[in-house]
Amino acid sequence: MNQPGKPQAKHFYTPVPQGRVLLRLVAGLGVWASCFVLLYAGLSLGCASALAGKQVGSVSVLSALLTVIWVAHLGALVVMFWRAWSNRHVLPTDVQPASTARFTGRLTWVLHGVALVATVVIGLPILMLPACSA
Amino acid sequence: MSATSQDRILPRPAPRGQPAADGLSPVARHHQMDAVWGAPRGWRALSSVNHSSVGLRFIGTALVFFLIGGVLAMLIRAQLAVSGNDFLDAATYNQIFTMHGTVMMFLFAIPMLEGFALYLLPKVLGSRDLAYPRLGAYAYWCYLFGGLILIGAMVMGVAPHQGWFMYTPLSGATYSPGINADVWLIGVTFSEISAVCGGVELIATILRMRSPGMSLLRMPLFAWYILVAAAMIVVGFPPLILGSILLEVERSFGWAFFEVARGGDPLLWQHLFWMFGHPEVYIIFLPAAGMVSMMIPTFAGRPIVGHVWVVASVLAMGVLSFGLWVHHMFTVGIPQLAQMFFSAASMLVAIPTAVQFFAWIATLWAGKPVIRLPMLYLFGFLAVFVCGGLTGVMLALVPFNWQVHDTHFVVAHLHYVLVGGMVFPLLAAVYYWMPHVTGRMPSETLGKWAFWLIFIGFNLTFLVMHLTGLLGMPRRVYTYPGDVGWDVFNLASSIGGFIQAIGFALFLLDVVLHGRMGKIARHNPWGAGSLEWAMPTPTPTYNIASLPEVRSREPVWDEPDLGAQLAAGQGDLPSAEHGIRQTIAVEPLSGERSSVIELPGPSWMPLYAALATAVFFQALLFKQYMWVPVGGGLSLAIFLVWAWGTGKRHDPAPVRLRPDDTAVLPTHYVATDDAPGWWGVTFALVADAMVLASLLFGYLFLWTVAPNWPPPQWITREVAAPLLAIAALLGAALLARQGHVGLHGKRPNDDGSGNGSAIWSWASAVAGIMAFLALTYVLRQAVPDPRVHAYASIVSALVVYALIHIAIGIIMSLHVACRTHAGYVSSMRQLEPRILRRWWSFTAASGAVILAAIHFLPETLA
């Protein structure tokens, strides 16, 4: 029971799952950033290492590795976008009021879509250019 | 205002509709509020921490720096007007163009926009102040003192002269032995403290301090733009802060980071600089675009078209713009594929920019636009910035970039982007919000004259300059021969520059004159819908007499008499009879009320702390190293006194939202998650993590470019001390965690204090001391002399980073332990143990990463 003027602590402790929702909004862009950093770092480190000239048949090992990184990120984004898109009419339970839930839901699939397109674009050069030519 | 047994712990008070039951008239309420929120007068005004005072200080100071930068620009144009000119010699010219860029970027653009954000945000959000009023004031003083270092050096003739991006090796000790480069490194770093403090404060304010009901959906676009720009500051500024520290340490103490002969590389500086430098363009553009997004719906008379797409574009720009930095480095010889990654990202970022443009145009198209004075400047913005954006896409193309790199084409492009993207919106914003600040209207005639002079002068200067660049004129040359065909274009640019200057003079004249002679502005003169226009003009110190419940993004369009209702006290917290500065904190997504924040009043602490920080930086600049610990120690002591003065020694009762209603909210002292300090520490740690990430980037970058790196003879195989350090750090983190978790089970005030928690804080300090000693041993015994090789330098820098964090952690542990004994901590007031826990967690994680990088990675790399 509450004492007058001295309510229990639990009434005042407000956990903030909302931070998670905010992070979910930009998660797709985070995957894009991860792809970008890993591609650039992988290329730079790969060109400075023994991987630089290695070939299996006519395929450069480094280019193949970069392609794997790219495709893995694309796969994650396709799944994220698809889930956000197919749930676009379902209101998330952790966001109130309903108007804001609709807004964040819509914003989520738009941003995941943007991240997907951006990831496609930045990775395409891997298929077109040799990895380490200056 | 204490709670009674009938108090309902509900976030929602009775609906608005009747004046507050305290019987105060709007005028009496104004006087009551003003007595609590008013800024001191006379010389005591320097202690004011109110966001309006601090914001206007930023704006005024940035304006002075703009005028200084403008005069420097005129000197540059005077020199380049004709070929073979001897108006300025090469050395003076170098100082002038360097200072023009430095002043405009660091002392005008960012602080001016932060000033606008600090001034406007609480008003737009319907709050009474920012999250950390004293931190905002400290940020201002740091900015002022840092700027004065730069301007003082220029007056003394020892200004930096290496270009505003200070490329190494020119800026290294060998080629720039004087104090000039140090002035830049220290002055700019000092000012950047201000930007990062401002960034943290703005994020916390936007997420938590809005009007009740202002959900993310209803949050004005200006806040979205500032949120993204502030997050970019927090992430984007640390690489340059780190780069400046490394270069200064190399110059002053002989460490090696950028010197090829000692295993470093000058390109590391370029990477660190542009990791900051390119996002900086968007950090400047976004707040200005946010102001545009507030003004265009007003003049179109309708809400913005495509709101969700605009928000998505802003967020996308904020992230994508971090993938562009290498496009400033296309000519330095990195692999073609890497160039293509950055070229692709550079072109991509044009798309979200264009989405915003189409949204603005569609809003005007769908509405009934009224051409008032600010709108004229907005047309100037739309035209000029689109041209700058298009030349930006041209520069994103690698082959074209190679052709025009370091020519006047790039100078023209960057001015189109920055003046178009920032200065024109800023001028529009000054006219738009001027009545809000002064209660008077600007002169339409003078304003129009100023616009056309600036617009024509600007285009004459910089449109023509594209051609000068395409004809091959390089940047940063103090003169040129007469037989290369550049004379006519340069003369035209110079004439344009002076026409522009006359335009800016007229604009200033209008601003100064209107304060005395302008017509009194009627309420909401532009017919805007956003919350700041529900406030009286000129705005009172407390912004708003009672806080409204917001039901849409344009609350003033919904309820034109909202201002009168709020002045009559019909919203939340209409009383200040308790003498406390109060405003409401909300949940970030829903905008539901969550607590009442009590804010500090005027304080001299920010000024004292900034003066002590100035002693620290000046001692570094003039190499008076015995004064460095004095300045640093004084700063620390002041911060500790400052921190000691916060908090409560008892569990405060909940606060009533209205005198006539029983609904109450807890204060921020007991609602730990809502406390401003919690959010500040979290975002400050993000900036801190970026410093470490940049340092690790340098470590890996040097490995990829420097030969024989890391040198095998210096790879340390010492294992015991690093493992001890990691164990001690983990121990400190666990102990601090226990100190916080242990509070959960305790009943409030069961023994008058949280003394049990203090033991854990003391213990975490002891563990921290052990980690400090172990790491000091690593630094002294296992790491070679940092002056010998870049590997040793960067490893030492990593260890010093960890040591600094451990030292701060120890001080924090001791502070929290003492505070707990003094009664500032209880099961309800857990903020400080919670912050301590987060600090030690971060320090342990970063320490483990650093020790792994030093002791395990090199063997793998080798």
Which features would summarize this protein structure in a list?
heterodimer; A: about 130 residues; mainly alpha; two-stranded antiparallel ribbon; disordered N terminus; B: about 850 residues; two-stranded antiparallel sheet; 4 strands; globular
* Uncertain ranges of chain A: 1-16
Q: What global shape of chain A is seen?
A: elongated
- Describe the biggest sheet of chain B? 2 strands, antiparallel
Beta-strand residue fraction of chain B = under 5%
Order of helices and strands of chain A: HHHEEHH
Shape of chain B: globular
Helix amount of chain A? 55-70%
User: Which sequence of SSEs, written as H and E, runs from N to C of chain B?
Assistant: HHHHHHHHHHHHHHHHHEEHHEEHHHHHH
- Portion in helices of chain B: 55-70%
Number of strands of chain A: 2
Main beta-sheet strand count, sense and barrel state of chain A:
2 strands, antiparallel
The total count of helices of chain A amounts to 5
Radius of gyration of chain B: 28 Å
Q: In what order do the strands lie side by side in the largest sheet of chain A?
A: 1-2
Quickly count the helices of chain B.
Answer: 25
Mean pLDDT score of chain B: 91
> What's the count of strands of chain B?
4
Distance between the termini of chain B: 68 Å
Structure description:
The complex is a heterodimer of chains A (134) and B (862). With 134 residues, chain A is mainly α. Chain A has helices at 9-12, 18-25, 27-47, 61-86, 98-128, and strands at residues 55-56, 59-60. Chain A has a two-stranded antiparallel sheet with strand order 1-2. In chain A, helix 3 runs antiparallel to helix 4 (61-86). The relative contact order of chain A is 0.17. The model of chain A is unreliable at 1-16 (pLDDT under 50). With 862 residues, chain B is mostly helical. In chain B, 64% of the residues lie in helices and 2% in strands. Chain B contains 25 helices and 4 strands. The longest helix of chain B is centred in the N-terminal third of the chain and has 36 residues, at 90-125. The interface between A and B is large, with 58 and 57 residues.
